[in-house]
Every structure is written in structure tokens, then in C-alpha cells.
Amino acid sequence: MVQQVTKGIKISVDTSFEGTFYKDYKIQFAYEYEITIENQSKDTVQLFARHWVIKDALNNEIIVSGEGVVGKKPILKPGESHIYTSGCLLTSPFGAMSGYYYMTSLTTTKQFQVTIPSFKLSTPFALN
Predict the structure, then answer these.
(1) CA–CA separation, 124 and 119 (whole Å)
(2) How many percent of the chain have pLDDT more than 70?
(3) 3-state secondary structure of 126
(4) How far apart are CA 23 and CA 11, in angstroms?
(5) DSSP structural state of residue 103
(6) What is the reported pTM?
(7) Rama region for 59: left / alpha / beta (φ>0; ψ in -120 to 50; rest)
(8) Cα separation of 92 and 122, whole Å?
(9) Which domain holds residue 7?
(10) What confidence tens digit (pLDDT) does each residue in 18-65 have?
(11) Which residue numbers delimit the ApaG domain (predicted)?
């Protein structure tokens, strides 16, 4: 598990390998990640967007940006957490993801970015 705190918002990430399958005649490696967003600040905050950089071992890069996380724009009061699970596909058995969330302090109305720490995606059978 990797963790990072930015402006009082703690991001924790746990990953797992889900399996392989073929899509469009190419092997795909499926990964799941669970993210916990914990508000350790004194302000009530809302997550309104995300930005991901997904890289695989073949140097392919995918950028994913959009509103909310899995269809939600959670509001977190001080001390509250939001947990969600999502996933991605890679064309290699190794990769990494990183990015940030766009958030708004509902107390001050200021917008800010929260760093999502870089985390590795790897298949257990490919590790030495």
C-alpha cells in the first residue's frame, strides 16, 4: 500500500492483479485498485475531478481525465473517508499509475489539487 498526504487529504492505494485475457487479438493484463481518500484537514472538501497517467512497461502512456470518481463527487467532512474501487488494463505485465484529484474546499471555496502517489501494477507470476 502506498500513501501520501496533500493539504490534509490522505490518499491510500492498494492494488491487485485480476488476470489476463485477449481483446482485439492482444493479451491484456487486468488490475484493480482500491483508493481511500481521508479528509484530515479542518475543512469540508469535495472531489470534483480526476487526472490519471497510466504507463506500462512497453512505454505506452494513457491519460484519463474526467469528473468525479466512479460516477461520484464525494463530499468529505473533517475526519471522513471515501473508499472506491476501479481498474485498468495494460498490454504488459508491469506498469504504474499516478495522478491527482481536483478538490474544492467548501469552507473557503478554494480549489486545489491532491496528489495521488505513484503506485505499481505487476503480475505475481512475472516477479522474481
Answers:
(1) 15
(2) 98
(3) helix
(4) 32
(5) E
(6) 0.92
(7) left
(8) 9
(9) 2-126
(10) 999 998 888 999 999 999 999 999 999 999 999 999 999 988 999 999
(11) 3-128
